[in-house]
Amino acid sequence: MKQSKSTRRRGLILTIAGLKRLQAAILAMEKAQNNGGRFTLEDLGDRMNVSTKTLNRLWSLNTGVDQKTLKLCFSAFSLELHREDYAILSKTNNTESSQTLSLSLDTEEQKLSQFLCLDSFVTQHHNQLENLWSYPDGPVPLDSPFYVERPPIEELIYREVIQPGCVIRIRAPRETGKTSLVLRLLAFAQMQDYRSVNLNCNQIDSSCLTDLNKLLRSLCWQIATELGIDPKLDDKWDEEIGCKLSCSLYLQSYLLKQSKSPVVLVLNEVDRFFEYPEIAQEFFGLLRSWYEEARQDINLQKLRLVVVYSTEVYVSLDINRSPFNIGLPIRLPEFTEYQVEYLAQRHGLDWTSSNEVAQLMSLVGGHPALIRIALYYLCCQGITFEELIQEAIANGGIYRYHLWRHWAILQENSSLVKAYVEVVTAKQSISLNPIDAHKLESLGLITYEGDRILPRCELYRAYFKKQLGVTEFEYESLQKRA
Fold first, then answer.
1. Which of 49, 77, 227, 411 is an S-S bond match for 25, by CB 3.0 to 4.6 Å?
2. pLDDT digits over 166-181, tens only?
3. Could you give the residue ranges of the DSSP H alpha helices within 137-242?
4. Where in the chain do CATH 3.40.50.300 domains reside?
5. Band (475; pLDDT cuts 50, 70, 90)
6. Which segments of 327-438 are extended strands (E)?
7. Contact (Cβ atoms closer than 8 angstroms) between residue 11 and residue 91
């Protein structure tokens, strides 16, 4: 008996993580080499050394290709193929799937089709996603399908970082996506062959924050070391001209002069300086001077400065010396209902025709970390949505580690405890000590509604009201002790 043509397809298909990695690399190259214009299928085929027919099979997500083809596609964009980028396909198909994706990067309509098909793929391949799930603590990895873009923010920072001597200011409370955004900015910069230095100001010794000379020498040493340059601080530092001028000359004439490509310098958690007003005045004024001098200094034009912080500046700064009124300001908003629904789909949940999104957001708002924790437990821990809502504020509930962390910080500072008691019990507008308000906002515990200070979400109001034991007697007792 003559065998019919085989209907069994064997090969490899892209996973969600693999598709997003490849798309991100393509997007970066489009911005760098094609002024942001989309590559056509023919352009991509030429770069990858594969046919457009093969590309259509690759984008379809249900038609297998061989490993050599995948390696060609990834290497064309300086990517190494990882095991999590693909899955082994072995299934019987007698007809073309109605969900086959015919992707062409040169039209927005087909781009939308791609995402619709991708959502279907996530729902159908729940088991593949299980390998990507981990407790959502910390930044979202570059190859994770759970990163949610907040347009036009990503586009704006990619466009700005290629501008000579630019400054980008990223502001948002903790655990709302600053570091995840910075990782993507640095990945984009790497695609441009830029060099990068990512510094966390919380790692600076306290002794450096009371001595400007020690602070600037410490930062210069870190930058040089990250760039692979011998610091030679003692040789290049001139105490006679002062530490700020020494720092500027060291950066311009030694570090940046040696770099053939731009350098992206990220200063994370600069809020640390706000508690040291005298140092803050001098240091922030220095950052401002680099931005202004870059207009005429070729070496300083190589510097792309990214300042990351959690709150508005409460330190009194001269408006003409502040770096917080220059450059591109980026303020990360909370997730919208659409973005929460999208992220739920990434987790394989279909919330499009129910009210789960509204219920969850009534509890935690659009707080990125709290949304992701909820989705993790729903998908990985077998908890039902009803159980999640009921147990949210319990000491043993799904948010226990997140809430305990905040509770421990509050307990270390009686002034903060007193301030937050006022916030969670207030029935009308209140005012707080600016420093306490700054600390509470940087923790992400409060938000502003006009002139009103409010708990960031209903979860915080309910949990901390319970934990603080807010009865009239206890509150008055606390006021007397403060």
1. 77
2. 999 999 988 999 999 9
3. 153-160, 178-191, 212-226, 233-236
4. 153-331
5. very low
6. 328-331
7. no
Burial class (CB in 10 A: 0-12, 13-18, 19+), 311: buried
Q: How many CA atoms lie within 13 A of 287 on its CB side?
A: 26
Bridge partner list, 307: 169, 267
Q: How many other CB atoms are there within 10 angstroms of residue 112's CB atom?
A: 10
Tokens of 197: 């230095």
| pLDDT, tens digit (0-9, with 9 covering 90-100), for 48-67 | 888 877 877 777 666 788 88
Handedness of CA 234, 236, 238, 244 (dihedral sign): negative
pTM more than 0.90:
no
Other C-beta atoms closer than 10 Å to the C-beta of 469 total 11
pLDDT of residue 370: 96
Q: How far is CA 337 from CA 80, 223, 355, 447, in A?
A: 35, 41, 11, 19
Q: Which residues contact 93 (CB under 8 A, 6 or more apart)?
A: 7, 9, 62
Please give the Cα distance from 325 to 332 (Å, whole number): 17
Instruction: Return the bridge partners of 170, or none.
Output: 308, 330
Please tell me the distance from the alpha carbon of residue 188 to that of residue 118, in angstroms, as a whole number: 23
pLDDT of residue 110: 39
DSSP type of residue 302: G
Closest to 348 measured CA to CA, from 87, 139, 132, 122: 122
- Whether the CB-CB separation of 139 and 179 falls below 8 Å is answered with yes
* pLDDT one-digit tens code per residue, 210-264: 999 999 999 999 999 999 999 999 999 998 999 999 999 999 999 999 999 999 9
CA–CA separation, 277 and 272 (whole Å): 10
Q: At what angle do helices 400-411 and 414-425 cross, to 10 degrees?
A: 120
Judged against a pLDDT cut of 60, whether residue 104 lies above it is answered with: no
The pLDDT value recorded for residue 167 is: 97
Higher pLDDT, 241 or 382: 241
Which tokens hold the place of 366? 């659009």
The helix (run of H) or strand (run of E) holding residue 42 is helix 41-48
Q: How far apart are CA 419 and CA 371, in angstroms?
A: 26
The CATH class that applies to domain 153-331 reads alpha beta
CB-CB neighbours of 67 under 10 Å: 12
Res. 42 pLDDT band, cuts 50 70 90: confident
Average pLDDT of the residues of the chain: 83
**Type of residue at 238:** D
Alpha helices in 252-384, H assignment, sequence order: 257-258, 277-293, 337-346, 356-364, 368-380
